[in-house]
Amino acid sequence: MTKTRKITVLIALLFLWAGIILYLYNQPGQEHRPLKYKKGEIVQVQGMPAKVSTETTVRLDLLRSPKKTLVISKNIFAPIHIYVPPPPKVEPPPPPPPVVLPLPPSPEEIARAQAAQTLAQFKYLGYLNKGKGKEQGFFSKGGELYIVGKGEAIIGTFILKEIDPNQAILRDSVTRVESTLILSN
Known about the structure:
single chain; alpha+beta; SH3 type barrels; four-stranded antiparallel beta sheet; three-stranded antiparallel beta sheet
């Protein structure tokens, strides 16, 4: 808003206030009527006679009347009691059976497991029949190549038990563990 616009609005508001004040000032005032009742006067309610007596009276008949006792049939603020039967007794679960720890493997079982693990490392690579019952197999283990005939030892106690063009059977002579190897492609 510009300065002149603000001044114009201010003057308009001042004229409006002045008009309202003049209007209220020129209005006729409220009419005054005389009071109906005077101070200290006893008022008579319709249908009841007025008591003019200023004496205080004691009613002894009220003292002799039997006192009425208040009978409370129910406490509305008491919590609601609902009978809930106690839960049935639950027998504790039977104790768990004792844990039987497996016996540690015997030295024979350990030797058999090691022999089976070593036999699993061999691969059957090829078969050669030289004639006159002389059969040989080509095996590898860990990058080393072994050429062994039927009944001969490959390494230590591992012997080539059976051999044919499709499979070979290796046997550990100490633990009697055998492994069948199929010809690798």
